[in-house]
Amino acid sequence: MTTIATMSVMKRNGEAEELCVGKMRKVIRFACAEYPDCDPLELEHDAHIQFRDRMTTKEIQRTLIQAAVEKTSVQQPDWQYVAARLLAYDLYKEAAVNRGYYGQFGYGDFAALLEVLTAKGLYGDYLLATYSQADIHELGSYIKPERDSLFNYAGLRLLADRYLIKDLAGGVMELPQERFMIIAMHLALKEADRVKHAKDFYDILSKLEITVATPTLTNAGTPHHQLSSCFIDTVDDSLANIMGTAAASSMVSKFGGGVGIYLGKVRSRGSSIRGHKGASGGIVPWTRLYNQIAISVDQLGTRAGAFAVYLDVWHADILDFLNLKTNNGDDRMKAHDIFPGVCVPDLFMQRVEERGDWHLFDPHEVREVMGFSLEDCYGEEFAEKYERCVNEPRLTIKTAVPAIDIMKKIMASAFETGTPFIFFRDTVNRANPNKHAGMIYSSNLCTEIMQNMSPTEFISEELEDGVIVTRQKPGDFVVCNLSSLNLGRVRSYEDIARIVPIQMRMLDNVIDLNFYPVKQAQFTNKKYRAVGLGTSGYHQYLAQNGIKWESDEHVAVADELYEEIAYHAIKASNEIAKEKGTYLAFAGSEWQTGEYFAQRGYTDERWKQLQADVARHGMRNAWTFAVAPTGTTSLIAGATASTDPVYAKFFIEEKRTGVVPQTAPNLNEKTFFFYKEAHKIDQMWSIRAAGARQRHIDQAQSFNLYITPDISARDFLDLYVQSWKNGIKTIYYVRNQSVDVEDCVSCSS
């Protein structure tokens, strides 16, 4: 009979050795060392390891990890950090075997890693071509392995499973701090003092003070370094342009980008084509085409593509559009996999309040008869031209519908599916600092991006010397470059002043270092150099500072905090402009004229000085501030998502390997009372706080409404009306407690 004393275990390198229980206990003590409430003996007992001859050390380690995970509770949240340290130990051992430095605990030779993964085609050769060996050794020695202890289990598990570089057999090659350093090196490639900036970038990444967009986290340092989250295209009313958008969207999705599409210029069902009345099938067939592309062209083979399609609320096809995702009706008129968004002017909301009529038009007929495009204007100009269309007898496609009936359809769809997203187009365009250069028709997949848009124009297609040459004039094809400040790790405004300038430099560098799936995206990104600095850890920030969500204090803090972030983002863009030059369309912008500052009431001395500096030296970035959802990346950082309240203080996620209990970040006796769950919060307080934040955000927020199944229609409608009246630019999901909706992974930042 085999005894414990004579049992052998199989090591990761395939060798057998005699079982040594002392080694296991040493690992447990290592994991529990910094957490006095976590007893090593208790973990050893609860692991219930059933030793057997030739058991693998990996099996023992994973049993310990799961035991620590399952001990996580409201009373003992630190077990999730013990589990993370055990997982880190597991990753260290696996990387050591795969990279050939077995016997050495922790991190291996960074320079050797670069050589090996470049040779394998897993890193791009541009890293070794740009950084000298001395640079690489200096940066390798700057890596801080101890920062792995900042991860909780769920965050480290997600980072390891999805983002660390693995070999073709799925073996771990890269460790967490090496991923952060590779991202930092990539984003510093074109800096004059690239080593200094790489260290700066690495520090704020590895301290989890910021997160970068999911594509940046995934693709930085690789051969196909597509670093941007979302792309937005405007479809003109022609077959060439409709199919051009299909081709461009396919390429964007192939390289991991989310897609936003504005269809408001496309003619409606029953419109004429080349004079043939009633020939058009409207926007539903094209939406179904984009739906199929989203399914067929996945994001780097990891998940289905994600497309949002936007339509104006006055478009004659709006009623069909609002039924796209619902479960009732003709399935030939459905597009279940796209995310619909509705563009809403102030006039429509006024008619809803008045219980007045709303008219639907065909945009093609309006152009032909009236000589203008309704979608090309906003505010008072839109209201005046809309009334002219209402009173024009030559318009044959013109349907009067009670505005409240359309609103009811919006609410019914939102109650059932979480969508459509809402885009308050007048609010957006009035606040646009670059209205001199264009118009904003819609948003992106996560409703936080607000940038000038226009269709790409087909010029010609010629056969030249046996080669087909296609010429196009690029439109404003919007690109989302995202990163989020982790407010959960902000202890003072001095932290914001230190972090944001580094973060803005990283974001600006994305524009020059990106791999662009389509040329019009590259053209637009260089023209405007727009970035979206956002935030995560917002509810965590409130809880750690003892601020109730449902309070006037919260609204005041939101106003002050986001003004502070905005100030440092604008100041950083101005400083980079002094060094590297302004964006191409700066002249004539409201940044230059000072109107941007006046609109927001920025009148104290520091703002006046910044306004003068911007007028003199310019802005590097046409837009600076956008708050994305951050669902995935905030989990890695151990923070609450975006500006959302927590779903629950404590919850259990089921995985194939077992259950994973999780707590709200930094849950303790002090913060417990201030973490109120999302569906228990009076949404009016969320709306007021979002309105306070919005004044300082030059783009928008991925703002969610949380409802319960028993909400009354009157109260539900009031949430939309109050969102509009509080100056919120968009509404992302309506998160009904009984409906699951899927966040965009691409836009997580």
CATH class of the domain at 481-736: Alpha Beta
Which regions are unreliable across 5 or more consecutive residues at pLDDT < 50? none
* Radius of gyration of CA atoms, rounded to a whole number: 27 Å
Q: Can you tell me the CATH topology of the domain at 481-736?
A: Anaerobic Ribonucleotide-triphosphate Reductase Large Chain
Give structural notes.
It is a single chain. The chain is of the alpha/beta class and 749 residues long. Among the domains are: 230-464, Anaerobic Ribonucleotide-triphosphate Reductase Large Chain (Alpha-Beta Barrel); 481-736, Anaerobic Ribonucleotide-triphosphate Reductase Large Chain. The chain contains 29 helices and 21 strands. Helix 14 (318-321) links the parallel strand 7 and strand 8 (339-344). Helix 9 (176-187) packs across helix 10 (194-206). The mean pLDDT is 93.
Task: Describe what is shown at a glance.
With 749 residues, this protein is α/β, with parallel strands linked by helices. The protein has 29 helices and 21 strands.
Give the key terms.
29 helices; Anaerobic Ribonucleotide-triphosphate Reductase Large Chain; alpha/beta; 749 residues
Provide the fold topology.
Elements: E1 8-10, E2 16-18, H1 21-32, H2 40-47, E3 55-56, H3 57-70, H4 79-99, H5 110-119, H6 126-130, H7 133-142, H8 153-162, H9 176-187, H10 194-206, E4 210-212, H11 214-219, E5 230-234, H12 239-254, E6 258-262, H13 283-296, E7 307-312, H14 318-321, E8 339-344, H15 346-354, E9 357-361, H16 363-370, H17 379-390, E10 398-402, H18 403-417, E11 421-424, H19 425-430, E12 457-464, E13 467-473, E14 478-480, E15 482-486, H20 493-513, H21 519-528, E16 532-536, H22 538-544, H23 552-580, H24 590-593, H25 595-599, H26 605-617, H27 631-637, E17 650-655, E18 658-663, H28 683-694, E19 705-707, H29 713-725, E20 730-731, E21 734-736
Parallel strand pairs: 1-3, 5-6, 6-7, 7-8, 8-11, 15-16, 19-21
Antiparallel strand pairs: 1-2, 4-15, 5-14, 9-10, 11-20, 12-13, 17-18
Helix pairs in contact: 1-2, 1-4, 2-3, 3-4, 4-8, 8-27, 9-10, 10-20, 12-13, 20-23, 23-26, 23-28
